[in-house]
Amino acid sequence: MLLRFHTLDVFTDRVFGGNGLGIFLDAAHLPAELMQKVAREMNLSESVFLGPPESGGTARVRIFTPGVEVPFAGHPTVGTAVFLASQMKDSPHDGTIHLVLEENIGPISVDVRFMGGKPISATFTTAQVSEHRPSPWSPNDLAEMVGLGESDIDSDLSCEMVSCGLPYHIIPVVGSDAVRRSVLNMARWQAMLAGTWAHHVYVVTTSPDVPDAEVHVRMFAPGSGVPEDPATGSAAAALGGYLAAADGRETGRLGWTVTQGSEIGRPSTIQVEADRAHGETTAIRVGGGAVFVSEGTMRVPGA
Questions:
Q1: Could you give the 3-state DSSP secondary structure of residue 108?
Q2: How far apart are CA 30 and CA 51, in angstroms?
Q3: Adjacent-strand bridge partners of 168
Q4: Alpha carbon of 79 to those of 73, 95, 135, 167, 220: distances in Å?
Q5: How open is the CA angle 44-237-214, to the nearest 5 degrees?
Q6: For residues 275 and 129, is the Cβ–Cβ distance under 8 A?
Q7: Which CATH number fits domain 131-286: 3.10.310.10, 3.30.465.10, 3.30.470.30, 3.40.50.720?
Q8: Topology of domain 2-126+289-299, per CATH?
């Protein structure tokens, strides 16, 4: 059987930037084992399988990396919303429409922005606010795991595990140079993090030298079959919760421009916001652009 698909680059405004996404149409009914094989064949950070809504939303969305199905992911959420908006009739020439994507974590609310009659970006609100757990490893251990020294660790922030539906081990470092020099030591990662709750590694600096960026990051996810991700919306959501908690203000809206992917030739820009009320983070939003790249069919036995 032939499965129709489209690809988009997400968290960018141009082709060959951002993070590539495969979207398979009318495919949420496929067996999970077959979806996994298709995602492995695409070999993108994530591939999405769409189906009709089951709970009153816009569409049922299942998300697979080359290695595993995930309950939620950021660049698939943004890219899928932009794609679905492009297929709708009576969309605005300029303005915003609201969609609800039914992901494994639950319904995700997404606002899609139109300009000139085309959807150009989307912003989603996470289904859950950030969960925080202390890292069981010392800053020196984590620094060595990513090829850095303890002096590269930003002592003003803590090494922490944070999740808005997908957990990340956040390692704060001083300056963009430390981010650029980071490289995952697979033997150390295997001994320290493989099989643990937060095995995705997120190296973060809040003192970047990248133009127009307030945070610069890299993300390594060998446990999901992604050696390095060029743009990670679910990690950016966790980052929003992490930085909002570190800021500590009682009430207000915080925002950051996050850059990622330049080290692997896929520059990406992610917008993050967090709302605070009564000393707690009450909402986290992540957004960015998406552009259409290709469409075609895949010959899938058994589909």
A1: strand
A2: 10
A3: 162, 200
A4: 10, 18, 32, 21, 21
A5: 100
A6: no
A7: 3.10.310.10
A8: Diaminopimelate Epimerase; Chain A, domain 1 (3.10.310)
User: Helix, strand, coil % (nearest 5) of the chain?
Assistant: 25, 40, 35
- pLDDT (0 to 100) of residue 90: 87
Query: What's the CA gap between 255 and 275, in Å, rounded?
Result: 9
Average pLDDT, integer, range 2-16:
97
Query: In this structure, what DSSP letter does residue 175 have?
Result: H
Count of H helices and E strands in the chain?
Answer: 6, 17
HSE-CB for 119 with a 13 A CA cutoff: 30
Six-digit token string for 290? 């998406």
Q: Which helix (H) or strand (E) holds 33?
A: helix 32-42
* CA distance readout (Å), 164 to 8, 48, 194, 229: 24, 19, 20, 18
pLDDT per residue over 185-224, tens digit each?
999 999 999 999 999 999 999 999 999 999 999 999 999 9
DSSP state of 1: -
Question: Is 46 in the active site?
Answer: yes
Catalytic residue, chosen from 46, 102, 103, 228, is 46
Listed by start position, the domains of the chain span 2-126+289-299, 131-286
pTM (2 d.p.): 0.97
Cβ–Cβ < 8 Å for 110, 98: yes
User: For the residues 110-117, what does the mean pLDDT come to?
Assistant: 97
Beta strands in 12-92 (DSSP E): 19-24, 46-51, 59-64, 69-70
